[in-house]
Amino acid sequence: MPEAYPHGLKTLTPGNTIVEALNILGPGFRLVPLDGSSPYVRPKAAMYDFNGKERRWDVVESHSSVGVILYHRELDAWVIVRQFRPAVYATLLREAEAAGKPKPPFSAAFTYELCAGLIDKSKSNAEICQEEILEECGFRVPLEGIREVAVGIASAGTQGSPHIMYYAEASGGWRLAVDSSMAVAGAGGGLVGHGECIEVLALPFHHCQPFVLDGSLPKSPGLMFGLTWAYFNKLNGSLGGRPAAAKEEAEAANGNPLLTEELTLRPVLPA
Amino acid sequence: MPEAYPHGLKTLTPGNTIVEALNILGPGFRLVPLDGSSPYVRPKAAMYDFNGKERRWDVVESHSSVGVILYHRELDAWVIVRQFRPAVYATLLREAEAAGKPKPPFSAAFTYELCAGLIDKSKSNAEICQEEILEECGFRVPLEGIREVAVGIASAGTQGSPHIMYYAEASGGWRLAVDSSMAVAGAGGGLVGHGECIEVLALPFHHCQPFVLDGSLPKSPGLMFGLTWAYFNKLNGSLGGRPAAAKEEAEAANGNPLLTEELTLRPVLPA
């Protein structure tokens, strides 16, 4: 399934890829009425007065969240995640049915996103980011290296929940025995037993904009903003250094060897 | 209410501003259970098989939409909209209640967004963009000047609906008798009688990034991506020309006179 890795994308989670996920997914997919007891989707009607008349606007309560723009120095790549999103598939299915077209493949509903998490713990946002970077992507990054960038309001029309975006860098190299940014073999990826299958991907630095602008790849607006902002700020030198120019030239000629060789990942998380 | 216009924002819709909207809003705001018949918010449970087990993911059906990154040449400014979003207020209210804080002001729920609209007509997306630019912002832009930039998936976790983003430029100047980009006095802004009050704002070109990164101002991720992408591409010269350098220098020294004088707007829409 080579088309699953366009724009130089390289999986960082062998054993937990879109290929594996597609093998354990389906075939059944159906939508049933919600019984009203969902902890995730709580529809309400907001009633308010406007110009002397009562107005109604239907809303959905949802959680606030954090997202992390993650750059890996030795890989000279953005670290992003991809997972199956039932809501995206439901939309594609509805559109296909309306147009009289066949069911779309599940692969069309694997969405590219920033490493992210809900703000539903009594921890600081930076701590939640740190935890998500470790759990989803398998990198330990220092708390002081996580800085707030901006805040987006997700689906202002219906949800209106803040999505707070952070920037962090992983570093230390893949092959050092002891460092602060080792990847976890087979981790990142969430818990398959919990119905999660999150693939972690490295996107080479300079492939950022062709990837973001490729409308055929489903991705979150948070990722689109975050990568675009960080790409131009890194180009301008206002967001820390990138790998040395010599390495960059070699990479332009030959590709980053860390991104083309097989990666050897070492577990650092407790089993 | 000077704090309503930070980062050099200038209203383009006198008579339809946040000040007016706040005067006709409230005081009542309450959330009631949704009766299940909403055409806007349709919660469902998606049932699917993953790793041999049946999984459930709660989703909300919603419409696909278009958004337009709009740059006005003579103003050398981004044209964006701001409106009261009940879903944003409901979230702020819930958070304030959970934290034992007083009710937030309504002004905190006026969200900055791209000119946008739902894809719910039998027209091309470019035609819907053209219509929204005229109805919401009061500019006539030629269809061939509207080009697709990128696609974001809104709220992949719960909604998963495509938000297709376009770029367009308005031009012609404010004071020409006949042109293709006149603003409509008091228009833009939607229909107050329908409970809408959309303020159209000009954001000076170079205030783009401080504005986008100001976490105290609620704004959509689509706007954040769109303005950031267009800003850097215009700086790089890869997105058409900006006003002549001489004008730019004068502006840096004195501000753009079109953005500091009172604007005289002429109606072009049918009454």
pLDDT < 50 stretches of chain A? 173-187, 264-271
Order of helices and strands of chain A: EHEEEEEHEEHEEEHHHH
How many structurally independent domains of chain A? 1
Beta content of chain A comes to 25-35%
What is the residue-mean pLDDT of chain A, rounded to a whole number?
A: 83
Oligomeric state of shown chains: homodimer
Largest interface: A-B, 83 and 83 residues
> Would you state the CATH class of chain A?
Alpha Beta
The CATH superfamily of chain A is identified as: Nucleoside Triphosphate Pyrophosphohydrolase
Q: What's the number of helices of chain A?
A: 7
Instruction: Indicate the structural class of chain A.
Output: alpha+beta
Give me the CATH architecture of chain A, please: Alpha-Beta Complex
Q: What is Rg of chain A? A: 20 Å
> Remind me, CATH topology of chain A?
Nucleoside Triphosphate Pyrophosphohydrolase
Keywords (chains A, B): Hydrolase
InterPro entries (chains A, B): NUDIX_hydrolase-like_dom_sf (IPR015797)
Organism (chains A, B): Gonium pectorale
Protein name (chains A, B): Nudix hydrolase domain-containing protein
Compact description:
The structure is a homodimer of 271-residue chains. With 271 residues, chain A is an alpha+beta fold.
How is this structure best described in words?
Chains A, B: One of its GO terms (molecular function) is hydrolase activity. The structure is a homodimer of 271-residue chains. Chain A has helices at residues 18-23, 86-98, 125-137, 208-213, 221-235, 245-254, 257-260; strands spanning 10-11, 25-33, 42-50, 53-61, 65-72, 77-84, 110-113, 115-118, 147-154, 161-170, 199-204. In chain A, the strands form two sheets. In chain A, strands 1, 5, 6, 7, 8, 9, 10 and 11 form an eight-stranded mixed β-sheet that branches. By secondary structure, the first copy, chain A, is of the alpha+beta class. The first copy, chain A, has one domain (2-26, 40-244): Nucleoside Triphosphate Pyrophosphohydrolase (Alpha-Beta Complex), CATH 3.90.79. In chain A, a hairpin with a 2-residue loop joins β3 (42-50) and β4 (53-61). The first copy, chain A, is globular. The model of chain A is unreliable at 173-187 and 264-271 (pLDDT under 50). β2 (25-33) of chain A pairs antiparallel with β3 (42-50) of chain B.
